[in-house]
């Protein structure tokens, strides 16, 4: 990417609420990767969060960026901003004002991101999971904005948090043999190549989802991507912004506790089964406080639980009452590491 350059081909995936903030992103950027701050309800620790959620979040974007930049003065630091968030445009603009090098955007296709970022130097990195989604997005950006992404991130079915697949697609990839998603990756790369050639440039690509060590990383590079995106491995690091009890929940999790769950807005996601999620899956309606206006398509009167409250409980270490998003191999974590150790275990 012009103007910015990461020393290492590794992107730390954005994890909200509060899992990847300035401390983790700054640590990754300091080591030469791309550190990513999650903007999802980023202001949850601000004293006026319950009363002025939007203002608290915008204020915290600058605070967390400054924290990361202090750790990595010359590193590459960005924000993950979900399309599904209310206040999406305001958060993107706040991240740009803060000084972000790159905006990563998924949980929906960021169709209007070029318009929001117009006039800035920030790099744009949409997330896609299928070739169809990639083609829809790139065709739209090409026709309406005469541009292509700086980086295209492919997020596979083994990723954590909200996933860009239908329940049927998830079942298809889980039941198929290893490497079943490779064909989709190659198809996405072909779309990126096609549109890059129109602009006489190469659209850089990254692959995330289930990358737990050198073997998966090497396989990703063998498919032709330029970088890997890793999130779950960074949760159990000293530098991760989450409470130690959140990290320990990963260390204690067993394989059969990592499951596909449904978020309050109907999107599939991957999380650790705990007492809270077992209550939800049993059909219980979990009482919650006032709406924090987090997701566009959430109806507080009908939602089975408040995702903001559940994620805040989790990041604060109230793990029995929280939503513990994770990647497919979270159960393999067996110790607290440093960011440097994680990076060394992924790259040659």
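^ Assign residues to that structure.
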């Amino acid at each position: 990417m012009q103007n910015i350059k990461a020393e290492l081909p590794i992107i730390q995936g954005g994890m909200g609420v509060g899992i990847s903030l300035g401390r983790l992103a700054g640590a990754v950027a300091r080591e030469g990767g791309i550190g990513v701050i999650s903007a999802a309800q980023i202001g949850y620790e601000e004293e006026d969060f319950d009363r002025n959620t939007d203002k608290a979040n915008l204020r915290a974007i600058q605070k967390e960026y400054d924290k990361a930049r202090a750790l990595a003065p010359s590193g590459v630091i960005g924000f993950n901003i979900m399309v599904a968030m209310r206040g999406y445009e305001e958060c993107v603009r706040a991240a740009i004002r803060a000084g972000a090098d790159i905006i990563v955007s998924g949980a929906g296709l960021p169709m209007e991101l070029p318009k929001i970022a117009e006039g800035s130097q920030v790099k744009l990195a949409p997330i896609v999971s299928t070739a169809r989604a990639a083609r829809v997005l790139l065709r739209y950006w090409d026709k309406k904005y005469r541009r292509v992404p700086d980086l295209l991130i492919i997020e596979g079915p083994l990723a954590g948090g909200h996933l860009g697949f239908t329940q049927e697609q998830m079942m298809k990839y889980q039941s198929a043999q290893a490497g079943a998603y490779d064909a989709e990756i190659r198809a996405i790369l072909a779309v990126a190549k096609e549109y890059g050639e129109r602009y006489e440039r190469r659209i850089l690509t990254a692959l995330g989802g289930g990358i737990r060590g050198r073997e998966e990383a090497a396989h990703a590079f063998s498919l032709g991507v330029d970088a890997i995106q890793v999130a779950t491995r960074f949760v159990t690091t000293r530098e991760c912004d989450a409470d130690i009890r959140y990290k320990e929940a990963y260390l204690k999790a067993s394989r059969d506790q990592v499951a596909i769950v449904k978020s309050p807005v109907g999107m599939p996601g991957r999380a650790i089964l705990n007492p809270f999620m077992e209550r939800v899956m049993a059909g219980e309606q979990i009482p919650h406080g006032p709406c924090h206006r987090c997701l566009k398509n959430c109806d507080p009167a009908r939602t089975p639980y408040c995702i903001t409250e559940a994620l805040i409980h989790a990041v604060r270490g109230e793990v029995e009452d929280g939503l513990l998003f994770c990647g497919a191999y979270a159960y393999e974590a067996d110790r607290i590491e440093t960011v440097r150790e994680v990076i060394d275990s992924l790259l040659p």
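The first helix runs from residue 22 to 30.
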